[in-house]
From TrEMBL:
Residues 122-270 form the CRAL-TRIO domain. Gene3D superfamilies: CRAL-TRIO lipid binding domain, N-terminal domain of phosphatidylinositol transfer protein sec14p. Pfam families: CRAL_TRIO. InterPro entries: CRAL-TRIO_dom, CRAL-TRIO_dom_sf, CRAL/TRIO_N_dom, CRAL/TRIO_N_dom_sf. It comes from Anopheles merus. This is CRAL-TRIO domain-containing protein. GO terms for cellular component: membrane. One of its GO terms (molecular function) is phosphatidylinositol bisphosphate binding.
Amino acid sequence: MSKFAAYPVDKNVKSYDEYKFTLPEVYRELAKDELREDDVVRTKALAEMRQWIVNNPHIRKCRMDSKFLLRFLRFRQFSVPMACEALEQYLTMREMYPSWFKNLDTSNDKMKELFNCGATSIMGQDSNGRTVVFFRIARFVPEMFEPPVGGIFIALLIEAMLEWEEVQIGGLQVMVDYTDMDLKLFEKWGSSELKLIMEAYTRWYPMRYNDTHAAKLPKKALPVIEKILSFTNPKIRERINCYANVSEMEKHFEPSMAPKGYGGNVDLDGELNPAMWKRIEQQRDVILGLDRMEIDYDYYAPIWDQQNAGLLGETPSA
């Protein structure tokens, strides 16, 4: 059940929420050192971004709360023009591909099944403030991960995590175990679909990625993985580390966060994953409420098509 209500999307409100920094001190230091964020910079940037949205006739409805706008300001290190551009890309992405990036509903049985298979674990934050996400690829059932369902599932997790300020500031560390991967997993994914989701995950969603550690990729799967990576932000590709065996990868788990079977004692299936899904479910109304935002589709669609030639098309939502 959702614990939190959807945010308003009326951009012409008379007053805004008063932001307070409530995270542990490590995030204040990270924000300052990596994002150029402090109380003065944040207040000024939020005011400027809100004014830009109000003055933009092509953004008709938008969340104006601090936490939402800080997604984009932190993503672009508090360059207001770049944050505004990132917001436009994000809103247009959702409008151009509604079947992939709207109606992200935790009550959908397919979403529950994909999470409950245990292939994806959001493990929490390490001592450096990074949120660790661990994939055990063999647990994905190919028939369940077909497009667009597999893409929707990851989009749902990204939207959920972006509601958490520790993720906005600390970013993600991604761990991947490819052991016994079913080569049929991406059998029904065409190049256009792979390009769409990787552009979304690494460019259009305002998510900050740190390093990635992956192990035991089957040689037969290398062509499809290389194709996927070709659609990924080059800066992210540079931070990917691959290992021939799992023991090398698991060294990059902090000891207190290492799962059972990977050099540690964290119970992913019995404790961590059920608790994390409950936390995600509590945000159901917040995530679905994003669908109430609205842009001038006729204005943005031609710009999008020009900038993203070659992507598959889709009929916009009503």
